[in-house]
Design goal:
6-stranded mixed sheet; DegV_C; 4-stranded parallel sheet; alpha/beta; Hypothetical Protein Tm841, Chain: A,domain 3; about 290 residues
Length: about 290
């Protein structure tokens, strides 16, 4: 059963479009700006190839994100309500964007317009394929025949088990996004320092460690997984990357060897998050016992 309600998310989930189509997940687009040109907006609907996006960043392009358009959110939810379907929108973390708060206001208005339908929005407290993995979990529950309220409750109750660990290759992009100081970016780059970050219980991106060297940083992601996974079962692990697929595959191989997991989804980090993290980012997502860092 795949039609008990319509599952919706946004492109910050970084789910491949073919995966979303296969699992009947609607993905709302979110605009971005590269050197003054807007993409994926109503005025400029075209999109850059991910590799071109990151190549332009490497050459110094100025990138900015654009918040989810309220009208797009309204129109997307309304499209399925008009088909007499309930809707569940799993939104980008409220700790990183106003997207969730804005969509909740839209949902409240639509609930008044469609009192016979259920309009639900859940704050994922997640980002990139961490959000995508949570949506994948919701899709599995829906396909078992569970209704919109039951799935929304399960997502809210289990979202803090969906663990995120990132590392970046160039600290200057984190500095530009206000995540680290200029001094940290300059000194860290000179010394080859690579930060390890995660998404905390409030959905914020937080540094949890630093290592020297790229390979050590990638290995540290898997080390954190070993600390967190506990007795939780992971049938599939998601990995996203900022145009460095081979390094994402290196992390997948480490996970495979250490935990015996055979199923992976690997995809690009999209422009909304990639604008802040930059080329060379690698992120690992899995189900653990909790997110809390001691």
């Amino acid at each position: 059963m795949k039609d008990t309600f319509q599952l919706i998310t946004d492109m910050n989930s970084d789910l491949p479009l073919n995966f979303a189509k296969e699992h009947n997940i609607e993905i709302m687009l979110m605009g971005y700006n590269v050197d003054g040109t807007e993409y994926l907006t109503s005025e400029h609907p075209e999109n850059l190839d991910p590799k071109e996006f990151y190549d332009r960043m490497r050459k110094g392009a100025v990138t900015k994100t654009v918040a989810l358009e309220t009208e797009l959110c309204r129109d997307t939810l309304k499209k399925f309500l008009d088909q007499d379907k309930d809707v569940l929108y799993i939104a980008f973390s409220s700790g990183l964007s106003s997207t969730c708060q804005n969509s909740m206001r839209v949902a409240e208005e639509l609930q008044q317009e469609y009192p016979h339908r259920k309009v639900r929005v859940v704050d994922s407290l997640s980002a990139s394929l961490g959000q995508g993995l949570l949506v994948h979990y919701a899709a599995g529950l829906r396909d078992e025949g569970k209704g919109v309220d039951e799935v929304a409750k399960a997502v809210e109750g289990n979202r803090l088990k969906f663990c995120h660990y990132f590392t970046v290759d160039d600290l200057h992009f984190l500095h530009r996004g206000g995540r680290v100081s200029k001094t940290t970016a300059v000194v860290g780059s000179m010394l080859g320092i690579k930060p390890v970050l995660h998404v905390d219980d409030e959905g914020h991106l937080i540094a949890v460690g630093k290592v020297r060297g790229r390979k050590q940083a990638l290995t540290a992601l898997v080390d954190h997984m070993e600390k967190k996974v506990g007795r939780e079962e992971n049938k599939i692990v998601f990995i996203s990357h900022g145009d460095c697929e081979e390094e994402a595959k290196f992390v997948a191989d480490l996970v495979r060897k250490r935990f015996g997991i055979k199923s992976f989804l690997i995809n690009y980090i999209g422009p909304s998050i990639g604008s802040h993290s930059g080329p060379g980012t690698v992120a690992l997502f899995f189900v653990g016992e909790n997110r809390t860092e001691k």
